[in-house]
Amino acid sequence: MRKIMFLVTFSFIVAVTFLSCSKDKSDKDDPSNIPGMGEAGGELEVEGPSSYPIQPSIIGDITGVEVNPLPTDNAVGSGGGWVILDLEIENTTDEPADFYLLGGSVIECRKVGYQHAICINRIDVSVEAESSKNIKLLVYCINRGRSGSSPDISYIIKGVSSSDRMMRLVEALEDKKIDIRDYLPDNKNEFIEISKKIQDIVWAITNGSGLSDDDWTLINSLPDIEEE
């Protein structure tokens, strides 16, 4: 009898502990409650260190860029309404090289009161042998209400976000035509309109109550990347 009671008690404790841990993890991914995003406290959380090829090849600091007017020379990525980053990527090999930054990579601003950001789509950059290339990386703000980027602010790429909610959005946009390079030189205004809509969707996760059916309808309606 004692053995049976012990087993029941032990099972109850395990179940309560599991449910408690699951609830804590779920709560940390609720809209407006993701660490480091919106007005939630804490640090930006990532799956692991940023070990993908673009990171060790960056020369110097990553700094901000004034967002108005939106730059077009060397511009890559999606967003840019509030945060644009200035990066110099170096290829020290004797062959052309391709560097990439994964979609879902979060970028931490190193000055209090300014916006952290997320690179919502994968960025691929080709650099010629034994040379460097400057890029203006367009990204999305994840702290609505804070100040945007500027040249006197530096940033650090932390890694890919551990937020399941945010990564579902990244995956939904994976095959969508949202990179500025797909819209230049003739369709810049169309890109700006699409970026504004996506920024509102990002804020619905970081500062709002989550994505609505209308948000998902909008995401699905975005143009697809054309097959080559």
Describe the secondary-structure layout.
Layout: H1 2-27, E1 62-64, E2 75-77, E3 83-91, E4 97-101, E5 105-109, E6 117-119, E7 123-127, E8 131-141, E9 154-160, H2 164-172, H3 188-206, H4 213-221
3D structure, described in words:
With 228 residues, this protein is an alpha+beta fold. 28% of the residues lie in helices and 22% in strands. It has four helices and nine strands; from the N terminus they run αβββββββββααα. The chain has helices spanning 2-27, 164-172, 188-206, 213-221; strands spanning 62-64, 75-77, 83-91, 97-101, 105-109, 117-119, 123-127, 131-141, 154-160. Strands 1-3-8-6-5-9 form a six-stranded antiparallel beta barrel. Strands 4-7 form a two-stranded antiparallel sheet. Mean pLDDT is 88; it is low at 2-25.
Q: How many strands appear in the DSSP assignment?
A: 9
Please summarize the sheet with the most strands.
6 strands, antiparallel, barrel
The helix content, as a percent range, equals 25-40%
The end-to-end span amounts to 70 Å
Mean pLDDT: 88
SSE succession: HEEEEEEEEEHHH
General form: globular
Strand content: 15-25%
Helix-strand category: alpha+beta
Low-confidence stretches: 2-25
Q: Supply Rg.
A: 20 Å
Strand order of the largest sheet: 1-3-8-6-5-9
Number of helices: 4
How would you briefly describe this protein structure?
28% of the residues lie in helices and 22% in strands.
